From TrEMBL:
Parts of the chain that traverse the membrane: 90-110, 117-138, 176-197, 209-231, 319-336, 343-362, 374-397, 404-424, 436-459
Superkingdom of the organism of origin: Eukaryota
Membrane topology label: Multi-pass membrane protein
Listed InterPro entries: MFS, MFS_dom, MFS_trans_sf
Chain intervals for the UniProt region annotation (Disordered): 1-31
GO cellular component labels: membrane
Identification of the protein by name: MFS general substrate transporter
Domain Major facilitator superfamily (MFS) profile: 51-464
Keyword terms: Membrane, Transmembrane, Transmembrane helix, Transport
Localization, UniProt: Membrane
GO molecular function, one term: transmembrane transporter activity
Length: 494
């Protein structure tokens, strides 16, 4: 492809009214014809079948492993390991400490060594999950959960990066939300699987809670070994596309803006990228809803058991909550991408989440009403979470900065779990007034941060529009290549 960009008038809010329409090249005055839309459609269909299913299955396993501690708790773990007071909360909290410590370094390693590193990470966390089922005391559980958090840390930001590498800005969100439904479905699947495994209580001298960890850990290891051979590489290294398809793929990603091909990494570079205000604003957005999502994953079985259900009934009743949350997030994420609006749909997720939290704080006497509140919480949180991640990903260009941004938002944003694991107090079980009140406060913080992101990006786009008028209509791309979001024609998505 040897074409220079043409600048066309467009109302696309993702870019400047002067948009780079085709692949860039330093050769002046050569215009490449528009990309073949039919070929693009075929390419996207092929990518959807090759990229998303693999990552979806791996995330399903990932979420089952991180959330199974809530299911194990009500199947006898709390009593056998003497998890009095806040000990269970500490076991939940320390997982996220591992996540926080290892997140950014491991996502940088992912960018450097490639996607197959995710399979290695998965194998490691599978071992730690089995370890959780074999521990003899609280201290052992804490150690295994810490190591599990460290091993899991690169998976979600790595998968988010990989999806964004293959798709354009206006295709990213729905694909990422589809990916995220694996985590939501895993919550439902976890309840069902745990209710089945509970029947193994006493087998081999192990309690049901131990078998939950052991069986799910073995599944993880088996899946990790198979996934090493099927995890897709970065686009420039892919071999599953025909040469003309690969050429079209790379042309699409270059034309989408923010392209970075010659990207070097240094400690100074990482520290510089982390100074971007957008990254930390997105961290607050993500933290505000992730705290509530973690509350659902880790404490919903306990809450439902407190409403009068048996342990098995509580496991089963988690399933509809997750399924409704998945459907809600997919439908409204599609509308968000179709309308190219992230901010207003983040606020929609916040409003639905806040409604559920207010129901739980009000503590109505009817168990069915409190159960309804869980549906609102799950639906709102599972819509706002992926929007916060995709919004920052498409607003920082590509290359290492995108990997650093994703590592920061997902791993620092997940610090919301630090809060949820310490405000859902044992003495308040199952009402958890402090936990739900804190969740509402953090959700409002997230909505405020989203408003800051929206206004800040809108003002910056106006400045860029003014500066662009001072430049030539057709740019010499040899002079501005690899600028990422600093490219004169890059515009922030709203």
């Amino acid at each position: 492809m040897t074409a220079t960009p043409t600048l066309s008038t467009s109302s696309d809010p993702e870019k400047n009214p002067a948009v780079i329409s085709e692949a860039r090249s330093p050769s002046p005055n050569v215009i490449h014809p528009p990309l073949d839309r039919t070929a693009e459609t075929r390419l996207k269909r092929k990518l959807d079948l090759r990229i998303l299913p693999v990552l979806w299955v791996l995330y399903l396993v990932n979420f089952v492993d991180r959330a199974n501690i809530g299911n194990a708790k009500i199947q006898g773990m709390e009593k056998e390991l003497d998890l009095y007071g806040q000990r269970f909360n500490i076991a939940v909290w320390v997982f996220n400490l591992g996540y926080l410590v290892a997140g950014v370094p491991l996502i940088i390693a992912f960018k450097k060594y490639g996607p197959k590193s995710l399979a290695v990470s998965m194998f490691c966390w599978g071992i730690t999950v089995i370890g959780c089922g074999l521990v003899k005391n609280f201290q052992g559980l804490v150690a295994c959960r810490l190591l599990e958090g460290m091993a899991e840390a690169p998976y979600i930001p790595g998968a988010a990066y990989l999806i964004g590498a293959y798709y354009k800005k206006d295709e990213y969100l729905t694909r990422y939300v589809f990916f995220c439904t694996a985590g939501i479905i895993a919550g439902a699947f976890n309840g069902f699987l745990s209710s089945l495994i509970a029947k193994m209580d006493g087998t081999g001298g192990y309690g049901a809670w131990r078998w939950i960890f052991i069986i799910e850990g073995i599944i993880t290891i088996v899946v990790s070994l198979g996934s090493f051979f099927v995890i897709p590489p970065f686009p420039e290294d892919c071999t599953f596309l025909a040469p003309e398809e690969k050429e079209l793929l790379l042309a699409r990603t270059r034309a989408d803006g923010g392209d970075v091909t010659n990207d070097d990494l240094s400690v100074r570079r990482v520290l510089h990228d982390l100074k971007d205000w957008k990254i930390w604003t997105a961290v607050l957005m993500h933290l505000g809803v992730t705290e509530n999502a973690n509350s659902i994953a880790n404490f919903q079985p306990t809450i439902l058991k407190g409403l009068g259900y048996t342990a098995t009934q509580a496991q089963i009743h988690t399933i509809p909550v997750y399924l409704v949350g998945a459907a809600f997030s997919v439908i409204f994420a599609y509308l968000s991408e179709y309308l190219r609006q992230r901010y207003f749909f983040y606020l929609l997720g916040w409003a639905v989440l806040a409604t559920g939290l207010i129901v739980e704080i009000a503590q109505p006497n009817a168990a069915g009403v409190r159960y309804m509140g869980m549906f609102f919480m799950a639906s709102g949180a599972y819509l706002a979470m992926p929007i916060s991640i995709v919004w920052i990903a498409i607003n920082v260009g590509k290359g290492y900065k995108r990997s650093i941004a994703l590592g920061a938002i997902i791993n620092f944003g997940t610090a919301g779990a630090f809060v949820s694991s310490n405000v859902f107090l044992k003495r308040e079980e199952p009402k958890f007034h402090t936990g739900f009140s804190t969740g509402l406060g953090l959700a409002c913080m997230g909505a405020t941060a989203a408003s800051v992101m929206y206004v800040g990006c809108m003002l910056e786009n106006k400045k860029r529009d003014e500066r662009r008028k001072e430049l030539p209509a057709v740019l010499d791309e040899g002079m501005v290549v690899d600028l990422g979001e600093k490219h004169p024609d890059f515009r922030y998505s709203l």
